[in-house]
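Hey L., structure's done. Input below.
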Amino acid sequence: MPWSRGRSTPRNTLAPGVAVADVLATTMVWPAVIYAALVFVIAVVILALSAVLGQRHWQPDTSVPYESGIRPAGPPPKRLAVQFYLVAIFFVLFDLEAVFIFAWAVAARRLGWAGYAEIVVFITLLLAGLAYLWKTGGLDWGAARRRRGPSSADERP
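Output:
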């Protein structure tokens, strides 16, 4: 081994007091910093150019809503109830959490008891969130909600 012939420097250091991990950490951060700075500069330049070079005109047709260039034939459709959006958000949240649980299940043996404790805490937080939704009426809609009356979330100004 080249490091062991007459050298007192261990294999995991480049020089006395300088570890390989320290050098790698400092050299691997700079590309990310440069990339982030370039992204920021490009975003600022694009926004500035659009503000300076963009057209500024207003006509009555500018504020009319249209779909694919077709003028509306009547009044806009009624809005969907908030519950449809809530169900969609809850589905995405709990579906994403199922992905995390599946990933844990794949690596459960390697994670050991520490991984088991973490997934127990995770599932406990999920159940606490579900209980909160259930208690506040976030999962109730339809006839049962009308009988019970609006929740405190519905009474906000």
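The mean pLDDT is 76. The first helix runs from residue 20 to 53.

-- N.
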